[in-house]
């Protein structure tokens, strides 16, 4: 009998909107094996090419189908430091599963993400994942600024190589946007915590509530460590560019999501208690079409919003977010206003009263096949709103100013500039990876760049610093390299 596509069980919408639990269950062993057996084991693995991490997908699917989950896990972990997280939150429909030969041939794709989650969750449950024990201990130390996915991925690889690693982060909990940006109904926080706990057990030091440039200077970090990786992500919110008197009730998506996640930890947040960052009983309008917008609308539903509407200037086929997330939002009662752009914020004596939207239409595709948008003259509508959430994307903060390090050059987009084909910045010994280099992007790309940056740092510390000209004074080397040079 030919197996048909069947994903893991999903909690019914009427039940899941009452809590913040993950909505998908893990596969059962037989179910995972049957679904993995659907892989065609094609000669050219398009799924692997569609994965930013180039995961060995057909191989670990075959091992899962054969009932060899530990070997499948080991193969999965060889290319990814956060596989069970990527299995939960990657937009597989646009990556590996969208590239699956079965999908392209008119059959439904293999449920790659769910199998990836299954084998790696099992690895934790069965004790296959243990603290890192490096084969050698090196004397050099590395500072990582940012405890998000890029920083965690780099720390994992660098500690495995035997380096001393310290992660500095502005927040009180490690995980970055995995903890504070992504809601628990997509990624429960214990899943992130077991990864950061493993790093701590492996000897990685975490320095939390630490703002570089304030609590410790960037120059002090350079003196203390042999190399630095900047993996801060991008946190500066883009704002609506419409006529407004800046009324109360217009908030940034990240402020809203961070507060919601802190509440889930049991924190006492004044802006939530006052209603400023709480959707309970309100008409909520979220502007944007990415996954952050979907996180906001689905969070608002769970907080008890009176109504939730998402406004996006293009149609569903052209939105940047995952179609799966849109479907989940629709099931949960979110209304979508496609081909609509914000035109003005309506206020009532300093408080938000609504959002005026301009209806749009798609134009003829350009040479790259991308359709533009244009106004439909005279087509406007007013949406009631007590809370407007701006989910328009993120931009980099001004790190050269924040860190008081003018040597850090930035691109015209404000991201850190790195050497061509490398992760080293314009400051010697300082590297950068993740969103702070590529701009706001996917977690899987942050993981990939964190891992690659770790390899770049290892090469730098192993070769470049030791290859000094003959007339160089050895005392110019960082102190830790005097001892490490004999390794």
From TrEMBL:
UniProt domain FAD/NAD(P)-binding: residue ranges: 141-450
Domain of life: Bacteria
Span of domain Dihydroprymidine dehydrogenase: 16-127
Family matches, as InterPro entries: DPD_II, FAD/NAD-bd_sf, FAD/NAD-binding_dom, GltD-like, Helical_ferredxn
Keyword annotations: 4Fe-4S, Iron, Iron-sulfur, Metal-binding, Oxidoreductase
Keyword Transferase: no
EC number: 1.4.1.13
Keyword 4Fe-4S belongs to the record: yes
UniProt-recorded Gene Ontology molecular function terms: 4 iron, 4 sulfur cluster binding; glutamate synthase (NADPH) activity; metal ion binding
One Pfam assignment: Pyr_redox_2
PANTHER family reported for this sequence: GLUTAMATE SYNTHASE [NADPH] SMALL CHAIN (PTHR42783), GLUTAMATE SYNTHASE [NADPH] SMALL CHAIN-RELATED (PTHR42783:SF3)
Entry protein name: Glutamate synthase NADPH small chain
